[in-house]
Amino acid sequence: MADPRRYFDEIELGEEYESPGRTVTEADIVMFAGLSGDYNVLHTDAEFMKTTAFGERIAHGLLCLAIQSGLFTRATAPYATLGFGGLRWKFKVPVKIGDTIKLKAKVVEKKDLDKPDRGQITLDRTIVNQHGEVVQQGQTDLIVQKRP
Amino acid sequence: MTTGTLTYFEDIVVDKIQETPAITVTEAHVAMYDGLTRDLSLAGGGVPDVLALCMVIGLGWRVKDPPMVVQAFVGLDWKVMKELRVGDTMHSRSRIISKRALRDGGLVVDERTILDQHDEIVQQGKFTFLVAKRQKEAS
Known about the structure:
The structure holds two protein chains of two kinds.
Chain A: E1 16-18, E2 22-23, H1 26-36, H2 41-44, H3 46-50, H4 61-72, E3 81-91, E4 100-112, E5 118-128, E6 134-145
Chain B: E1 17-19, E2 23-24, H1 27-37, H2 49-59, E3 70-80, E4 89-101, E5 105-115, E6 121-132
Antiparallel strand pairs in B: 1-4, 2-4, 3-6, 4-5, 5-6
């Protein structure tokens, strides 16, 4: 079967992707609290959150960061990714239960690395909600294999 | 000094270092993470790097000091140095590197380091939190 993955050489500067939407549910937040161990009241105490400016529980920032990482795999053919180099990220607007988020991404930098079999691809990433508001934004560095 | 059951902006001490307990990363964590996010893991027993980042936030609440009154997670700047494998045991170290008062709270920059069972650095970076003040300033 042909390898469906896209290698470093084939990914071009300026490529843009948009993912399908995904509705963030209470179940997502509860599962993420269990998985991460982050039970902060912001995400788990509905009564306390009624007394705050948010008015209700909000999704963990890192839950939405992790969801966008999954949405990326649905936005384009898979990269031949070897690993994740790092990220620079801002959390701008809270995501509430029932909000629908999607990812917009653009390739903004490609560079060779010391090891000749791989390169680094930097993507600008923006998560928007159903109102078109930017909820999170940043850059991620992916280590991608070159075509063997 | 920290007293009571919560740590407010005023209580936070710059340069204070705290260590968390450790957690062994299992196949179950990876499977749950894949199902929750569809951020499909790499073949061959690698742990998704973002999963380790998510778990370090949870570990961060398990230190001796009472929990910080975090009002918002503002941002992060993060580097991955080494791949974590299923069966590895990670813990984290945090150091407050700066705090800056705002009118109704303050920004706290917390440098977090994930270490494995060999005490090798796996991931490292800075989290910026908005933390509540104990006393609101008179308006």
